[in-house]
Amino acid sequence: MNKSDFYYDLPEELIAQDPLTDRASSRLMVLSKSDGRIEHRHFRDIKEYLRAGDCLVLNNTRVIPARLLGVKPDTGAAIELLLLKRISADEWECLVRPGKKLRTGAVVSFGDGVLTGEITKQRDDGNRIVRFSYEGVFEEVLDKLGEMPLPPYITHKLVDRDRYQTVYAKYDGSAAAPTAGLHFTKELLREIEDMGVSIAYVTLHVGLGTFRPVKEDDIMDHKMHSEWYEVTPDTADLINRTKAEGGRIICVGTTSTRTVESVADEEGTVHPGNGETDIFIYPGYKFRVLDALITNFHLPESTLVMLVSALAGRENVLNAYRTAVEERYRFFSFGDAMFIC
């Protein structure tokens, strides 16, 4: 299976640059995974497709201001670091630009020396391990100096940081938002719970592995980067009970999907725990837990398009994407949503 099998043509003007004022007012495409039938709605209409006994699974990770802009004190060269994963109290795995200027032992200064970082290791994938020095609490320093790590296809400056957070974000650690959740408001979630729909929370700290381009022609040669997750006993019990009682498990976003599928056994029973997952879901995968998915529209040839194609079928998904382009849907992080059911 080749990555070109998951290509579609997307006009650049359809890439959403700014979030909508009302989160729930985005458009919603409803796609039947059985026959490819398409409906056009708005996101607040999602309630019409849910029923008592269902369970929504949300990723409660919180995006940190992980983008740091600094300089090399010895040369004055501009440096950008993106925090990907915490290794220890003061060490992080980082994506660096430009990499050729940051060999092991190099030092970067941020905020006129309020924060400094020393490169302690260069990984095979090009990422760096950076040890930070500072006074006080790292999270407070980062909050002052860091910027929200918006994807490169978003060129507009984000006015309100909270618009790149879900309303239920709780645990710091992500370098990108679980964007399918950005459509929910607190009011909409309350209305959904009042319908008898359960809400379960998992945590997966989103790194860049999910969004890295697939470079290999044969997708089987692609290696996913690992991301940290946690599923609590209460969440596992709720999901298992929902399944046993005939309810549907509806994941909000591909990160929630990858989390529950990572902790399920062959029979579909979810087990609590935490750790690292590098699960790669593509057509041919048999879902153990997931029944339906709320997601955004993803980049051509991305692992995320491959995941939704595993659920709804490649031809159905590509036809839906072509229709979304024709209907002028908004794409990617701040774009519109799709419900695959």
Write the layout of secondary structure elements.
Layout (H helix, E strand, L loop, with lengths): L26 E5 L6 E5 L12 E5 L1 E3 L3 E5 L6 E9 L4 E7 L9 E4 L4 E8 L5 E7 L3 H8 L25 E4 L11 H9 L3 E7 L22 E5 L1 H12 L4 E4 L1 H9 L10 E5 L14 E5 L6 H10 L1 H13 L10 E4 L1
Parallel strand pairs: 1-17, 3-12, 3-14, 4-11, 14-16
Antiparallel strand pairs: 1-2, 5-6, 6-7, 7-10, 8-9, 9-10, 12-13, 13-15, 16-17
Helix pairs in contact: 5-6
What does this structure look like?
This protein has 341 residues and is an alpha/beta fold. It folds into two domains: 3-63 and 159-340, 3-Layer(aba) Sandwich (QueA-like), CATH 3.40.1780.10; 67-145, Thrombin, subunit H, CATH 2.40.10. Helices cover 18% and strands 27% of the residues. It contains six helices and 17 strands. The protein has helices at 138-145, 186-194, 233-244, 254-262, 303-312, 314-326; strands spanning 27-31, 38-42, 55-59, 61-63, 67-71, 78-86, 91-97, 107-110, 115-122, 128-134, 171-174, 198-204, 227-231, 249-252, 273-277, 292-296, 337-340. It has a nine-stranded mixed β-sheet. It has a six-stranded antiparallel β-sheet with strand order 5-6-7-10-9-8, with helices on one face. A two-stranded parallel sheet has the order 4-11. The longest helix has 13 residues, at 314-326. The protein is globular, with a radius of gyration of 20 Å. The mean pLDDT is 95.
Work out the radius of gyration. Answer: 20 Å
In CATH, what is the homologous superfamily of the largest domain? QueA-like
CATH architecture of the largest domain: 3-Layer(aba) Sandwich
Strand content: 25-35%
Describe the main β-sheet briefly: 9 strands, mixed
The global form is globular
Question: In CATH, what is the class of the largest domain?
Answer: Alpha Beta
- The beta-strand count equals 17
Order of helices and strands: EEEEEEEEEEHEHEEHEHEEHHE
- Overall tally of structural domains: 2
* Unreliable residue stretches: none
The neighbouring-strand order within the major sheet is 2-1-17-16-14-3-12-13-15
What share of the residues lie within helices? Answer: 10-25%
Structural class: alpha/beta
Number of helical regions: 6
The CA-CA distance between the termini, in Å, is 25 Å
- Please tell me the overall pLDDT: 95
CATH third-level topology of the largest domain: QueA-like
